[in-house]
Every structure is written in structure tokens, then in C-alpha cells.
């Protein structure tokens, strides 16, 4: 898939068309990374937007004890690196590294902001997506506040499936590789305890691993059992309306 089509299909610019990005493409370059390369470090100036063309990137922060806390994972088709673009002095608060061979389509903040100023439609699309992300985060925070560890693991898996899920006849496959250590870092628990929680979910038939990826055979049933977020609420905050807003 071409970069402009990937941008138009991305969650951030949901409702755009490939032609909307033609001017932006004039300023873009492609960069390739090996597995384990740093894309950026915490404290770096936030001066670049990235479209992941292939591979996978995790965004994380090191705790006081040196333990890595994984905040998010990005795969092909995801846009990353823009959260600080609207600040006066944009600085990265988290680090990003690749966990497989990765290539990215890159545009500078200066060129991106010039393009955005001339495309108010794109600003509206971004604001709509940011609003949905805030709703998702609020629901997730409320959903995990008083959960047991097994419940926290289950709701995090549902969140990953909502974002990266690939439906199949067997259920919904989480389309990124999530190790027990990564999952533990995401929810702030020890790997050993997360391993036990996953074992409990596997025994109940709620999750299994196929070809290195996690599969949720019955995500709706899992949500009813462990999550306070209703199916309707999950559908609303994860829905994609392809019609561009007026104006």
C-alpha cells in the first residue's frame, strides 16, 4: 500500500482521501531501522511525524528502577510522534524503539504544521480522533481502577484487540506481538503475576496464542465478564465514521 493511501486509512486522519496528502508528500522521506533501534529518546525535540510503513515500534518510559513501561505499540499504517506538535517547545516525554525491522515515512514538524494550517479539514479530522482517544483512555482508566489482576489483563487484551484486532473465524487476533513481559509493563504488574493471570484465562478458554499472536476466541463474552465498559460504549469509541465533517 502506498504511503498516501496508508495515511488516508489511518485512525488519525479517518475520513481523509489520499489526495489530501499530496502536498505533504513533497517534504517526506523514508527511513529504515533495524530491530532494537531507537526512533527517538525521551528528552529529544519533538520535531518529526512518522508513518509506520512496515514493522513495529513500541513507545515506553523507564521507571526509577530501570524497568521499561510500555505505553503503546505502533504497526504498519499507524501515525506517531505528533502529540507534542501543538506545544510551544515540543519535547518527547517517552522513548520509541523498534522491535522488528521497520521502515517509516517521515515529515518534519515545520512542514506538517504548514500543511495543516492550509488544510482545516485535516485539523477537524485530527480533533475528532483525539476526542475519541480521550474517551477511550477515560473509559479504560475507569474500567481498570478496581479490577483484580486477571481482570486488568483481560481488559488490556480487549483494549489491544479494539485497536489492533484482526477478526477471524476463530475470534479476534491481536495484530501485534505482545510478550508476557510487555503486557506486564503495560499494566504495571510483574511478569510472573501476569503469566499466572494469562494461564487462568487460557484454562477458561478466553485467550490462546497462535503463531506468536494472542487470540481472543470470544471477546464479547470476555468483555461482559471482566469489563465495566459495555459493548455499545466500546463500539462508539472505537467506531470509524468515514464521512468527513462539514467544512
Helix percentage range? 25-40%
| SSE pattern | HHEEEEEEEEHHHEEHHEEHH
Q: How many helix segments?
A: 9
State the distance separating the first and last CA atoms: 29 Å
Strand order of the largest sheet: 1-8-3-6
DSSP strand content: 15-25%
The tally of strands reads 12
Largest sheet: 4 strands, antiparallel
Overall SS class:
alpha+beta
List keywords for this structure.
23% strand, alpha+beta, four-stranded antiparallel beta sheet, single chain, 247 residues
Provide a descriptive summary of the structure in words.
With 247 residues, the protein is α+β, with helices and mostly antiparallel strands. It has nine helices and twelve strands. The protein has helices at 3-9, 22-25, 109-117, 120-144, 149-164, 180-187, 191-203, 219-226, 231-238; strands at residues 29-33, 38-40, 48-54, 56-62, 68-75, 79-80, 95-98, 102-108, 165-168, 171-174, 208-210, 213-216. The chain has a four-stranded antiparallel sheet. A four-stranded antiparallel sheet has the order 2-7-4-5. Strand 9 and strand 10 form a beta hairpin. 30% of the residues are buried.
Amino acid at each position: 500500500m502506498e504511503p498516501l493511501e496508508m495515511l488516508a486509512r489511518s485512525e488519525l486522519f479517518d475520513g481523509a482521501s489520499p489526495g489530501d496528502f499530496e502536498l505533504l508528500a513533497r517534504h517526506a522521506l523514508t527511513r529504515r531501522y533495524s530491530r532494537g533501534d531507537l526512533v527517538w529518546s525521551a528528552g529529544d525535540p519533538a520535531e518529526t511525524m512518522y508513518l509506520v510503513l512496515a514493522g513495529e515500534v513500541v513507545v515506553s518510559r523507564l521507571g526509577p528502577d530501570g524497568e521499561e513501561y510500555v505505553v503503546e505499540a505502533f504497526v504498519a499504517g499507524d501515525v506517531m510522534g505528533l502529540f507534542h506538535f501543538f506545544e510551544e517547545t515540543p519535547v518527547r516525554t517517552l522513548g520509541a524503539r523498534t522491535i522488528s525491522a521497520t521502515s517509516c515515512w517521515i515529515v518534519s514538524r515545520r512542514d506538517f504544521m504548514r500543511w495543516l494550517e492550509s488544510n482545516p479539514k485535516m485539523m477537524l479530522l485530527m480533533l475528532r480522533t483525539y476526542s475519541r482517544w480521550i474517551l477511550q483512555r477515560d473509559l479504560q482508566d475507569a474500567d481498570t481502577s478496581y479490577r483484580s489482576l486477571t481482570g486488568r489483563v483481560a481488559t488490556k487484551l480487549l483494549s489491544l484487540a479494539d485497536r489492533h484486532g484482526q477478526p477471524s473465524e476463530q475470534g479476534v487476533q491481536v495484530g501485534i506481538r505482545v510478550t508476557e513481559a510487555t503486557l506486564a509493563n503495560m499494566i504495571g504488574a510483574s511478569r510472573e503475576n501476569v503469566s499466572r493471570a494469562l494461564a487462568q484465562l487460557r484454562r477458561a478458554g478466553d485467550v490462546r496464542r497462535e503463531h506468536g499472536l494472542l487470540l481472543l476466541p470470544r471477546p464479547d463474552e470476555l468483555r461482559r465478564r471482566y469489563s465495566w465498559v459495555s459493548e455499545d460504549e466500546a463500539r462508539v469509541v472505537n467506531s470509524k465514521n468515514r464521512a468527513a465533517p462539514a467544512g
